[in-house]
Amino acid sequence: MIISLDIGGSAIKLGIARSQTDIVPMGRRPTPKDDFAAFAETIRSFIAETGETPSRLAFSIAGVVDPDTQRLTCANIPCIHNRSLASDLEAELGFPVLIANDADCFTIAEAELGAGRGHRIVFGAILGTGVGGGLVSDGRLVNASGGFAGEWGHGPILACEAGNPPVKIPALPCGCGQKGCVDTVGGARGLERLHKTLHDLDFPSEQIIAQWQRGEEKATSTLDVYTDLVASPLALTVNITGATIVPVGGGLSNVGPLLGELDKAVRGRTLRRFDRPLVVRSECRLEPGLIGAALLGLKAEAT
User: Is 123 found in the same domain as 269?
Assistant: First the structure.
């Protein structure tokens, strides 16, 4: 039996997995952000409530692990940031621990149980608060030990002009320390930032999208620029990885017309031509982090 945990900035979610087809969510607790002892105790009490002894703990976390030092980068939970988290939790809790990036967990869930079934190479894209991604090849995560592969949201690659007619796009600063990353415009906060940059209007992403769907001029302009900016790096990612399906998760994936426009734009820019949808809504809508972490834990137990 594997216990999988999805660690977010506001909540820790727990699930029990006995097989690929038997993964059950078990509830959530608030995340202690600033006290590692409280963080470990929350997990310990969670495990105790199951009344069972797991063979392994598998964590989905919004962060990356340095392959050389094993230290975690997780800015939104200070008490685990810059720790060798796997070894620290193993010492505290007494179980083998597997740490995985949340976008990687999303992607393995989609590859095994979601929209990526039947595809050798699956690129999972997150368009949520920010932009993330993961890459699965032949059922295995690429660069599973760190969580870096698939992070198409970062790197100074954004076009300096976009839209029809083209408008100038400044190289906006990114939280990763670089400028001009897809993350600066691609997620919900990025869409809001882009609308502010183009029209000097502070609107939430939901309002911008609603106005776009009503055909309002400024929102339509913003979404035209957004699609142009995001489609090119995503098409390049497909070219580089050879992915034949791109399941999309995160809040913006719920906007069907936006995903349709993005799919059309991406397919028009890839070297291989697809006569079917390529960029699609994810299918694992219920706790993909828990599902992906559980799948990775079960694979680790089987090897």
Answer: yes
